């Protein structure tokens, strides 16, 4: 059930009440400040903030700092390993290219 904000007409105190969405706004209610039943008016409330957690949402939204740091370290290691592999591959290509050139010269 949603929570609605009501304001006491007598003292001006604002308080919350649980009420069904299909119910009409209350005309009288118990005011906690006056400690008696008073005329009230429903006011626009700020609403409630909430966070979705669990399956069905982006799992990366709620990762811990440790997990993010470890993932960052792994990506930097993979990235540096790829550079070294490309350099080695380029070196092997230059050796084979020189061999080919020698074979063509003969």
Task: Describe the protein's architecture and organization.
With 106 residues, the chain is an alpha+beta fold. It folds into 2 domains: 3-43, Rubrerythrin, domain 2 (Single Sheet), CATH 2.20.28; 59-101. It is built from 1 helix and 4 strands, in the order ββββα. It starts with a strand and ends with a helix.
- The proportion of residues in beta strands is 15-25%
Stretches where pLDDT falls below 50 for ≥5 residues? 96-100
Helix percent band: 25-40%
Overall 3D form: rod-shaped
Spell out the helices and strands N to C. EEEEH
Brief overview:
The protein has 106 residues and is of the alpha+beta class. Helices cover 39% and strands 22% of the residues.
Question: How do the strands and helices of this protein lay out in sequence?
Answer:
Blueprint lengths: L2 E6 L5 E5 L9 E4 L4 E8 L21 H41 L1
For the structure shown, list the relevant keywords.
single chain; 106 residues; alpha+beta; Rubrerythrin, domain 2; four-stranded antiparallel sheet; 39% helix; 22% strand; rod-shaped
């Amino acid at each position: 059930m949603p929570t609605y904000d009501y304001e006491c007409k007598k003292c001006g105190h604002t308080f919350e009440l649980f009420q069904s969405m299909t119910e009409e706004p209350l005309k009288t209610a118990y005011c906690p400040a006056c400690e008696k039943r008073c005329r009230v008016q429903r006011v626009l409330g700020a609403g409630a903030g909430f966070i979705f957690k669990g399956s069905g949402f982006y799992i990366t939204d709620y990762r811990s700092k440790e997990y993010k740091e470890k993932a960052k370290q792994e990506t930097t290691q993979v990235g540096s390993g790829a550079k070294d592999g490309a350099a080695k591959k380029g070196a092997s290509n230059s050796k084979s290219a020189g061999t080919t050139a020698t074979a063509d010269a003969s």
